[in-house]
Structures are given as C-alpha cells and as structure tokens.
Amino acid sequence: GGMGIAVPEEFDNSLNHILEELRRSAWSSPRDISAEEKVASNDLADGRREAVKEAFLHAWRGYQKFAWGEDEITPVSQSGRNWLYMAATMIDSLSTLWMMGLTEEFDQAKQWIEHHLKFDRAKQASVFETNIRILGGLLSAYEFSGETVFLSKAKELGDKLLVSFNNPTGIPYAALDMQKLKGSFPSWSGSSAILSEYGTLQLEFKSLSRHTKDPKYAKAAERVMRIALSAEKRSHKLFPTYLKMATGRFGNRVYTFGALADSFYEYLLKQWLMTKKVETIYRETYDDTIEGLLSFLIKQSSPSKLFYVASYNGRKLTHKMDHLVCFLPAMLVLGVQNGATQAYASELITLAKELAFTCHQIYSRQKTGLSPEFVTFVEGRDFIAPLNQGAYYILRPETLESFFYLYHYTGDPIYQEWGWEIFESIQKHARTEVAFGHIANVNVIPAKVDDRMESFFLAETLKYAYLLFSPPKTFDFDTHVFNTEAHPLQIFDKSELDELKDLPPTPSVSPPTSFTAAESPYHVPLESRHPSMREAPSVPSASSHQQLAQSAMEYTTSLHRTEELTANSAADMEIAAVKSESQAQYSQLTQHAQ
C-alpha cells in the first residue's frame, strides 16, 4: 500500500479471491439482449416516463396546496411539517422540475424563494443535510436557469454554513443553530465529525466559490478533506466513520459503505471529476478505497451466492447491509467509465451488476416489493428483513439511482424493468390522496402509510426513475456530476478556482430580527388549512416549541437519512438481529403448529 495505509497480510489473498469470484460470475459477460427486447423497452419508455412525471406532479400539487413554503407535506394528515425551516421540498424539487420541463411550477417556486426564503429559523440544522438539499438545490437551479436570485440565496446560506467551520481545527460542526449561528455535535458522536458529513460538502462549496468568485467556501471544505486524507495510517485502505474534532485524528475503527460513510466515497470520485480530473489525489484515494472494499467488505451469501457489502464494527465484520449501500453500483460504474487505467475495470463492472441484482432481490423478496431500511445476511437464507425496527421503506432513491447508471452505461433494458417494478410498488402502496408516504413495514399488506414524505423522494427517487426512461442525452455525464441529492452541478476547469483572489471579508451576518408567528412568511392562517381548527391559537405554545426542538433533533436519528440507532453499538444491533431472527423462526413454528 501507499503512504499512510496499513495493509494486513491477508489483504492480497482476499482481494484475489473476490476477483476470481467476479470473473466466474454470470454477470461478467454482457447479457444477450434480443432486438425484440430493445424495441419493446423503447416502446414502453415514453409511457413510463410520463407515469413518473404524473406521480411527481401529484406530490408537488399536494405540497403546493397543503405545505407551500414548509419543509415537507404530511401525506396522510394533509398538512405541513418543518425540521430545517427552509422550504426543503420546494428547493429540493427545483432541479427535477427543470429536467421534467415543468417551467411554470419552477417559476412559482422561484417567486416564493425570492420573497420569502429565510435561513434563520432552525435551532438545530444539520449542516450536511442543509448543504446537499438546500445549497445543492439552489446552485443547481442557478446553473440551469441563470436566475441570480438562486445564487444570492446560495451565497447567503453559504456564509452561514461557513460558521460551522469556525473552530481551531476547521473540522465542521454537525449542526448549526441558524438563529444564534452556533455549532454543535450530537451527544452520541462525542464531539466527532461524521465521515459522510464532513466529506460531502466539497462539490457544493467549490461550485459556490466558482460562481461567487470568492475562494473562502472551497478553502474551508478542502481543508477538512486534507485533514482526513492525512490523518494517520488507515487499515484496509478505508476511512473510519468518526474524526475527532479536537485532534483531527480518527475516532474509531468502524468501516462501512452504509450510513455515516457512504457519500464520502462518492465525493472522492466526484471531486476528481468536477474539476476535470486534475486533482489526482482524489482519484488515487478513491482507487485505494475500492481495493479496500474488494478485499475486506465484499462477501457472498448462501445459498444464492449473492454479492453484498459487509461492515466492520471495530472488532469484527457485521453482515448487515443498509439500503443506502445500493448507491454503490452507480459509483462503481461512474468510476470505471472515467478511469481508463483503473485496475480490475471489468471485475468492477461485474461487481456493480452483481450488487444491483442483490438490491433488486432485496426489493422483490418483500411482500410490498419495497426494500426495508437494511437487511441482515444469514447463513443458508441469503438475507432476512427486520421484523419491526428497520422494516420501513422511506422512499429511498439509491437502488433506482444505480439502475439508471447501469442502464445508461450498459443499455441493458433489464434495469428499466426492475426500476419499473419498484415504481409500480411505490404507486401501489405509498400513494396517498395528496402525495406519497413512507411504508411502515414492507412485509405487511395492506401497507400502513406513515405521515412523512422526505424531500429526497422528489429530488432523487422520482428524478432517477424519470431519467431511467428518458433518452440518453437528457442528462449529460460529460458536463455535469450529480451531488448526493441528485442535483446536477457543472464540471469546470480547476483554474477557475485557482485564479480566485481572497476578497475582503464579508460583513458578519447581523443577528436575526425576531418576528411573531403571524408575520412569518411560513404562517398560513390555520383556518385556511384546517377548518376544524379555527379556535386554535396562532402563536405556538411552549409545548409545541419543545416539539419543534424535538423534531429538529431528529436529524441525529435520521443522520444521513438513516434512522439508525447509532447510539447503540453495532454489537447491540447484532444481538437484536439474532433475537428478531429467532422470534421470526418461533412465530413461523407456532403458525405451522396451528
């Protein structure tokens, strides 16, 4: 291995073993696709694309009617809810609206953003989520439309997010009080920054510097990357999930491609792509981590020999795979396509196809045809879905994202078929009168729809579904990269950043003026929303303030959009998995007995 990497002795053996297995895979040679199959899939694509657009508009109209200017629509109770207080669904939808050609809707959103969008309400805004959803959404909308309002709002937000880097090491706080502009870490991470959080700011901050011609954003985001890349010897060429803020050293020995890590690896590759492949440190580090993935975390199930990605909890491998990991085929394909010299290129394409097949199986083996939050791989049974904790599907996009990339690069219509199956299951089980909602348990029919619709359903899930059935040039991989929220950002010359001169410091942000609920741009008279609530006071009570604080703190449980019990150690998770498995077997036995 190279500098700063400690490679265990068995590294090469396990690497060679996995490469052998991949060469033997049925997916290692292209599938024979008949002319009929191609014609059929092209004939179906237009209608399917329109169906996806109709689903998008269904949710968008619900949001406009019941939650305009709020973060989310509540799809069952037909109201709105906030956690970032930044009109998340509206801003997260901008690039999808543009790509679907919905110019009128895009314009209505632009009007609202121009007159009402403020960034001073959340007491606990996740820096990571605000960056990928809000900053990414605004920058992408600016690049598409050229409307300067999006850039000026992006700059205003970027200046606030920079506050999270204000500390001796420059490792950003996880959360920001947008009123007092104070940073904090969630109690469970013990003052450590999370790999997928500090490592998923760079595309957006570099774009912001490029467009504002002010280097300070790129510098801050770049600095934390340098800290991570030089932190210390890394076992297995991978990066631990915690970075200690005080020392700039890694805080644990947990290696995963799921929650807390996933998009860090994606952004290594995309930072290299975004500045036209001149920053080779990112590509080299990415290639290293892919070797680590192959030799250490890629495993096969029994009896079906499905490829999957394990995690390492600091003591041993755990065979639990988050749905989030289903983004990997997309990343692997993007890496191979752009790395003419990449070692193991054909094996990595095979791995992408194998993992996409595993993700397809994780969906198709559930009663609703939708994936749980994670599965546990078990000897003799391939994998099992959780019985309750983690049995939900929260409209996540990663599998559709990978199907889109694989279809784009292989032309194999099987990915359109699998994608359509997922979309049909979403339509069948998650659609409500006004939007779509999370599925409480993917193995209970009829499905119970929870009262939440994450903004990424419109930003990512439906965008990737739409692109899967769109003509090839609808998205141009040569000129854009997707941020991890599926917002396209332009590729540009690194010289554009290098030439930037330090501008005089921007005046510090003035403290927010307080306003009453009635003056708030978010305030919609209650009676217009719920006739039954005419008597309700329009000023929030103390208890609803507590609830707001509570919901703002939810970002800790939904970290990187995963409702992981991160506070519990991986060991507890394993005990729980074994327990739930034995409960499952017990209940099957009792059913047989009856």
Please characterize this protein's 3D structure:
This protein is mainly alpha-helical and 594 residues long. Helices cover 48% and strands 9% of the residues. It contains 20 helices and 18 strands. It has helices at 11-24, 35-66, 88-99, 103-116, 127-145, 148-162, 195-198, 202-212, 216-229, 262-274, 280-297, 328-338, 345-364, 398-410, 414-430, 456-468, 495-498, 526-529, 542-557, 570-593, and strands spanning 5-6, 72-74, 79-81, 125-126, 175-177, 182-184, 192-194, 234-235, 242-244, 298-300, 307-309, 311-312, 317-318, 320-322, 374-378, 382-384, 480-482, 488-490. It has a 3-stranded antiparallel sheet with strand order 4-5-6. A hairpin with a 4-residue loop joins strand 5 (175-177) and strand 6 (182-184). It is globular.
Concise account of the structure shown:
The protein is mainly α. Helix content is 48%, strand content 9%. The chain has a three-stranded antiparallel beta sheet with strand order 4-5-6.
Largest sheet: spatial strand order: 4-5-6
Low confidence ranges: 508-572, 585-594
Helix content: 40-55%
Over the alpha carbons, how many angstroms does the gyration radius reach?
A: 23 Å
Number of strands: 18
How would you characterize the largest beta sheet? Answer: 3 strands, antiparallel
Molecular shape: globular
State which percent range the strand residues make up: 5-15%
User: Helix/strand/pairing class, anyone?
Assistant: mainly alpha
Mean pLDDT: 87
* First and last CA, distance: 59 Å
Helix count? 20
Keywords:
single chain, mainly alpha, 3-stranded antiparallel sheet, globular, about 600 residues, 20 helices, about 50% helix, disordered C terminus
